[in-house]
Input
Amino acid sequence: MGSGIWSTDVYDAADRYRRATGASAFAYSDSGARKVHAALDPRDAVRESRDSAEHPQSLAISVLFDVTGSMRGVPRKLQTKLPQLLGLLLRKGYARDPQIMFGAIGDATCDRVPLQVGQFESDNRMDDDLGRIVLEGGGGGQMRESYELAMYFMARHTSIDCYERRGRRGYLFLIGDELAYPKVKAREVAGLIGGEPTEDVPLRQIVKEVTAKYDTYYLLPSGSSYAGNRKVLDFWRDLLGQNVIELDDLDAVCETIALTVGLGEEAIDLDAGLRDLDQAGSAATRTVSKALARVGSGRRGTAVSALPVVRAFTDRISRL
Amino acid sequence: MNYLVVDLGYGDAGKGTVVDWLCATRPVHAVVRFNGGAQAAHNVVLRDGRHHTFAQFGAGTLRPGVRTHLSRYVVVDPLALAAEAGHLAALGVPDALDRLTVDGEALLATPYHRAANRVREIARGTGRHGSCGMGVGEAVAYSLAEPADAPRVADCRTPAVLLRKLTDLRERLAADLGPMDAPPVDDCVTACTAFADRVSIVSRSHLTKLLRAGTCVFEGAQGVLLDEWHGFHPYTTWSTTTFTNAERLLAEAGMAGEAMRLGVLRTVTTRHGPGPLVTEDPALPLADPHNPTNPWQGAFRFGHFDAVAHRYALEVAGGVDGLALTHLDLANLKPRAGSPMKICRRYDWTDRLPVGLPGDLDRQARLAERLLDTRPEYDDPPRDWVATVQDELDVPVVLTSSGPTAEDKTALAALTMRDPTSAPGC
Output
């Protein structure tokens, strides 16, 4: 007996059934929308990841991806792939109470939707946010997008219990293929996010702030205009060190993110994680192995040697 | 062979985890629900830590391929069902709705029933019945008063019919109780239509197909001591919580009696909500992680193992072939503070509660009054819980559980019917 723990919201239910019958995951963007969906508007927003009775060890995980033209078909692929992330994290026990937030990055110098930020959610509600992202497709020809604005938002406009209550950093994954602008411009912040910024913030300063709060990674996927570009990789390695990951198969994006979190949480080491992937019949093992070689080897000193017994992957569910 | 699983207490004994174990250890084709509705809360935890509270989906749903069938005895809540399917998808089970069939004759619980349920329960004040506030009882009551007008699952396929029925329902309830805090009828019809587009709505005969296709587990909701006729009135549910509905469904499929009857008991007798709990002992050093205090039922209550009440439940249910005894980990725990877990074999005035005729609610109400004033007599904590429970209830314990997952279960004997020639229960 209980008191009905599942929501009986009539609008939520209608929405869920419609989605389950195959409405487009890109409904909002495909309907011609060209301004930020109210749910993703960063203006005057603070995104919170909170502990609760059901999720006492919340862990904030944010995935923000570049939706400008240089990314070509990548954002659309990400919109279909990323909904698997939560299930993957939970299934493998890589994180106990993950709370995931999705968002998108454009170019504040010319795009209509330079920053879109969803909410941290513990269930699949953040998939709704994915469907609301406007795929910009614009961007300038200068090989830069407004990643610094996204980092500014994450550093100063999120509040996460894992960090604030337990001193554990969250995770931030930036997926893109270009450089950031050299500073966060007060004018752009005032126009898009609000608050009363008085001066520009240098890029290094905001990277310092965001990495204090989030273990921050940059993923450069294949299929984008600047995949493998040395200048892009060097730029981000200069800022984030080894936390720059080249992803040569976009199908492996969730596995790569999940395993990175698992390594960071010391729930698993790289070899065990790759074995997990193999066991699950994932074709992504090679990509992930290659992508995480640096990250994993950098961690090996601290990572635990094996999963705790209760995490052993033996129950019969083996699909996402 | 099929299995019927009921709780021989006040609910919360662990039916969900027993059903999950059955589905994990043998090829189960479908889990069939045969009473209650969305107020059920059957918790299942997998070894990898994933946890789901099953309300309308069968508790075997985390096992790949296991279907759920909601028979006509279930009160179906399409709104809560959507949210529950959403959580299952988040756990990596995206096809729960694809594995679901619902009997078109089943009653619908709607936001209007729910609103009425809450208004009435609040009006009862301190005399609350322990209703869950989900509108299940209200839906049953309305169907008895207005059988032709009660909204049913099949109506979701015909929006015009549903619109009329929901409009009538809302108006009638509002005439009785005042304005309803509930969404507009049009919006409710939209959601129910989306439900009908997505979920497979079937006729009675579908269950016969499921039973012919393979093993079915009939998952009871709530507990025999909450039964609408044999529970302690008025602290009961609007639902038959014995094997009766399940046996009737089997008989309709021409398979009367072809199922093992499994009773589930917990080493502590618990109750969520008001009403008799003779052995209640707030000093028991226990807590239930899945049953927090909620505004409709209040705090979760613990009592010592009440053999008198469980013997009564067994008699009401017409006997079982075997018992599943859960929470043995608690029984074997040496408590550092609080009372040790004891056993009650007799009350201050009797060691047996006689079973009355179904329908005599006055008698049940008198019994409830007496039980509220009854003192338990205790014996020392049993050394061997399994042997003691077997002796007291005269039924073999065939399964024990000492933790939340299927791996924490131990089968002590083959799960078989004790006497296949005996007639099915009451």
About this structure: Residues 2-71+205-411 of chain B form a domain with the Adenylosuccinate Synthetase; Chain A, domain 3 fold (CATH 3.90.170.10). Chain B touches chain A through 63 residues (CB under 8 Å). Residues 422-426 of chain B have pLDDT under 50 and may be disordered. Chain B has twelve helices and 19 strands.
